[in-house]
Task: structure prediction
Amino acid sequence: MGDSMDKERIIFHVDVNNAFLSWTAVKLLEEGYETDIRNIPSVIGGDETKRHGIVLAKSPVAKKMGIKTAETLYSARGKCKNLLIFPPDFKFYKKKSNELFNFLSTLTPDIEIFSIDECFLDLTNTNYLYKDYVSLAYKIKNEIYNKYGFSVNVGIGNNKLCAKMASDFEKPNKVHTLYLNEIERKMWPLDVGELFMVGRKTAEKLKRLGINTIGELANSDMSFLRKHFKNQAQFMWEYANGIDTSPVVSSFSAYKCISVSQTFEEDVSDIERLKATLLIQSQNVGKRLRLQKMYANTIAITMKTFDFKQMSKQMKLNIPINSTNNIYENAIKLLNEFWDGTKIRNIGIRLNNFTDKCCEQSSLFEASCQEDNTVNKILDEINDKFGNSSVLLAATFKDKRRIVMNSFDFNRYISFVDGISNEMDYPNSIRHLLYVVVPAFIINYGVDNERLILECFRKTKIYLSNNIPDNNVNAYFDRKLYKDDSYYSHKFIVIRKNDVDRYITFIDSIVHEFNHALNSMVNEINFDNKYITLRTGISFIKYDINLNPINKDDSFVLEEVINTKQTIDIINVISNISSYNIENIEVSNLLKAINGEIKNIDYKSDAYYLETTIAKPLLDNKTFSSTLKQFRLKGEIEGVRFWFDNITGNSGDYDRLIKLFYEVYSLTISFSKRVFFKNSVINKIKSKKREIEIIISTFNTNCIYK
Result:
């Protein structure tokens, strides 16, 4: 897994050039369309009459005219009067994608699908078949074009990172190499923003620090990088130096190997810290095994010492395993056998030699498979809900059935809450509850988003008032726009004062409204000549240039449905916080009181009850919930439409879903106001409900992971 091993590896990265536009061109030519749209001003996008239509792909000619991916079709047509717009056809794209990957799988079984239009091939052990890998790459490229009608780039490297970087060097229809001995010459002179996994904001920050090229990043002091980029520093530095030990995981056959590793921020010689790391890793690899319903016959631990020396030790097991506890116990056994106390930079676990047969017990003192699987199933479900390794088996305890929550630094967040409450003059009723609300958001969204969450809490003021106009509303989130040299918004949450006497009502209000605020942080304000749009989750409010509100996007109903589900999830996190080790007595007592209320009233949110009930099969889909959570948080809202329609295979499904939820909402309001014709309204609601169910069913059916 070190450099010596990397030099022996031969990895290809195959990437379709301008996939959506190319595949649409192929389809049109097959149907008799006379012009190849790749040679004219053209784009792939939604219906130009739709409000949210954006450019998904553009031809080289359109690119030269300044048209950009993700800009509105309205804007694109303004740059090119004769622009041709074609709708996406995801079913056809899936067909071409499958054809490509099936063809490539004939070259090697070790193929990892990276996205719908790109993949990695591991050709390391095929030197007896292919003597010249560059010639092979050209042969692959040419055969794909001749056979399927579209071009690809092929990158060749000694690891996945180098192969990926190589395929991006120059497009289209090219072959490039980036071997480890070529990194300094070919990769280091490139702009730092071109490094894989370095986004625009990170690149801008690097440049502000005087790091403009990949080479400058590769030669930067690690302590300096950690100071400014925390955990992100390690992988950026490794990628800049061409270091990538990740395997090509076959997408066409059963796993040959499952592994996980961690590089520490500083070299570690503390055995308890190594054991804690191995425990979390055991949970991780065990879960992946259990998802495949497989058991491992061989386990190994790998280490990289402070001086980059690679070490590993493995053993064959008498009994195949997949439980967290058994993986951990054997990992510790290997650690004790060969680790001599040397400082460790990286440690990991590797499992292989798989079987689908359950273990047989060799001892009366060992847990049965059935019992072990039951416990691990519970653990997996909890971790799915609250994040990986939220819950672990207390493997170091004699009672191996005990389940404990990982340690969590509550004192850190108590100090944070005290700071903002003093600044904003919050009463104790708010301050005390924020002690548990703030950590719950961190746990729910992950520590990687801690900075964004804390920043949002600092910027959002909470008010208590009985002057809420709508008697049916307990709280609301709002923003006021201010025009100075630039536009900015002030966030505030208003909660009905009379509701503070009940913990759960207050928590529901603050979590729900703050979740709106959090999901408006990134790409919050957008300018479009005459208009300003403010984002809240997946919905928008449009203002004119003088800050007069114009309209509210129809997607606000689906936004409320999603937010309601996430509110319930976060409150469940709050309920489970009591399982953590909490030293603060005040917080501990508060949690007991909250849990008492939750149990007594059988907590659930009543907001948008009908719409949330209809959406439940979608909201329960783990792929939908987890992916959408990230989309909303990162402000990549236009990407939601593309992603959703890609899975259903039907362009416009996402927009129809938004419209249908809004229509159901409008009908329920009209139902409550009308005296006559209520049956007709009910029938309309039922009809819309059936349409929603069809779209959701299609999405769930096409999802690989539920």
Observations:
- The radius of gyration is 28 Å.
- The chain is about 50% helix and 20% strand.
- The first strand starts at residue 11 and ends at 16.
